[in-house]
Design a protein that fits this description.
alpha/beta, twelve-stranded mixed β-sheet
Length: 332
């Protein structure tokens, strides 16, 4: 199902008869989804402002796969370098608990309680506190009471309850806005016109950069590296993320030979039998297990070699510093 949706949402040629037959019912559901989303936005109460802290939303228009978590990690580390006390506010999608949780690198909560992305952010950003919970206004108030002065609202572009000082919207140029359709016909949560609300559009640069989408854009490389030498190495890719083909493409760019894959839904919690099957398949193929940083949070430590994403800005330093409230500090 995941592979079929990826082909539908991000077409690279003829989509075939199955996609053509699916279009009419998906268009009807997409229209209903749009009406409900518009009604919710119109009925939303005035957003709550947090005095004494700058709130910066980091979000996207599409469902997953734009590189938002590496961007949040980069922004948190950058702000820390300039003396900001940073907290990240996130819902923690995919976790098995609804309880509010706080975690830091020195005090990690278990993945089922905290979620994979919050654990990854906390691990990569010592000194940053991650607040996990559905009520992000409550999280923001708790963070401010603890003395944090820059609050990064993770996946917050469609969030209406918390006022923000800047909205950063990520777009992966490898797929752009997909087929331009709204859920479930396409990957868009909102129409492309919603970009008018953005303060800054973060373009995750690919080999081919699309046309400008906003008057204020920056371009960033999300460079992938591995914990293991991959050149010429046969690998079995096991992953549960929004766009699994991106993992295969990254592995290939690093010189790996992808001989098998195990794809699961985004945030999938791997069972012992699924991991055992993947391990046995890799051994039978004399292949190395390979996964992502996010997936590794849902696996036993050391189960697979890991792809790590680092962010390097190509341009837009001044605009980004302004959005974070770091005016006058435009170092790379």
């Amino acid at each position: 199902m995941r592979t079929w949706l990826e082909r539908l949402w991000y077409p690279r040629g003829d989509r075939g008869l199955t996609h053509a037959l699916a279009a009419p019912p998906l268009a009807l559901v997409s229209g209903a989804f749009s009406l409900v989303a518009s009604a919710r936005a119109a009925l939303a109460a005035a957003p709550t402002r947090i005095d004494g802290a700058r709130v910066v939303s980091v979000g996207n228009l599409t469902v997953g796969g734009a590189g938002k978590t590496p961007a949040v990690i980069f922004l948190a580390q950058l702000a820390q370098q300039h003396g900001k006390r940073v907290a990240v506010l996130t819902r923690g999608y995919g976790r098995s608990s609804t309880a509010a949780v706080e975690l830091e690198a020195s005090a990690l909560a278990p993945e089922p309680l905290a979620g994979d992305e919050p654990r990854l952010i906390a691990t990569r950003c010592p000194g940053v506190r991650v607040y996990v919970g559905a009520d992000r206004v409550a999280s923001a108030r708790a963070a401010r009471a603890a003395g944090f002065d820059l609050l990064l609202l993770d996946d917050g572009f469609q969030h209406r309850r918390l006022a923000r000082d800047a909205d950063l919207v990520l777009i992966d140029d490898a797929v752009g806005l997909g087929n331009g359709r709204r859920l479930p016909w396409g990957p868009l949560r909102e129409s492309a016109s919603a970009l008018a609300r953005a303060t800054l559009v973060w373009r995750r640069s690919a080999e081919t950069v699309g046309p400008p989408l906003h008057s204020n854009e920056l371009h960033a490389e999300h460079r992938v590296r591995s914990t293991f030498p991959l050149a010429g190495t046969p690998v079995l890719v096991i992953t549960g993320i929004a766009r699994p083909s991106s993992v295969v493409e990254s592995a290939a760019r690093l010189g790996a030979r992808v001989v098998a894959t195990r794809f699961f839904a985004d945030h999938h919690r791997f069972t012992a039998s699924e991991l055992a099957e993947a391990k046995a398949a890799a051994q039978a193929l004399d292949a190395t297990l390979l996964t992502t940083e996010k997936d590794a949070q849902r696996m036993p430590e050391g189960f697979a070699q890991t792809l790590i994403v680092d962010v390097v800005l190509r341009d837009g330093h001044a605009a980004l510093h302004a959005a974070l409230g770091l005016e006058g500090q435009h170092g790379a």
